[in-house]
Amino acid sequence: MFAWLLVFLRAAGLLAVFPVFSGTNFPVQIRVALAALVAFLVAPLVPLAAMPADFWGVAGLMALELGFGLLLGFVSRMVFYALEIAGGLMATEIGLMLPAGINPMGASTISELATVLQYVAGMLFLGLNLHHALLLAFQRSYRFLPVGGGRLQESVLLDVLGRSGHLFWFALQVAAPVLAVTFLVTIVFALLSRAVPQMNVFSENFSLRLLAGLIVVGLTCQLMAQHIANGLHHLPDDVLRVAYLLGMK
What we know:
The chain is mostly helical. Helices cover about 75% and strands about 0% of the residues. The protein is elongated, with a radius of gyration of 22 Å.
């Protein structure tokens, strides 16, 4: 039971942060039940940890496992953070940022394009059976990060910071087609404003950028989905990498 509890805390921490299962529209009872089921399946494969003699030792070990789960969930959520940034960039460029919509995967409000991208990522994550790969990576993480055997160190911080830098590059790649088209539209209207000073450039530019941006988003949906799928395929390896760094002596 003690081993099951420790695995349950790490699984609960991961599911509490991962966007597909941590959304406001996802019932907490089902999330807890999933964490309990994962712990029931994984706990027999985990080496037994020595139970501390006092209460504070047990509480510290439980807090440590919960923190490890939250960190692994945060690393696996970075692709969805990148999609939120990409959707914000595209919405800002084409003029859809003002009516911020409800975020189904969090408490904050985001643009509609970011919501669409996150829904696409969620469907790809489940449709490509990547949740099975993530569960397998969670079970394998105990090879590198045994119960109570990890610690925070400089290599973990550097790895997470490097992933944060790559996050913005990934978002820029997803939003690149829309940014390029809106830039061309802006250049064209800048030239027209010099040639025809009487033209109301602001109103004409706004409507054309919106139309061109939506057309480009529709034409590049397949390309965006492929890029998102490539990023999602790296999630199990990212979890194992962070687990390895946490458990490294």
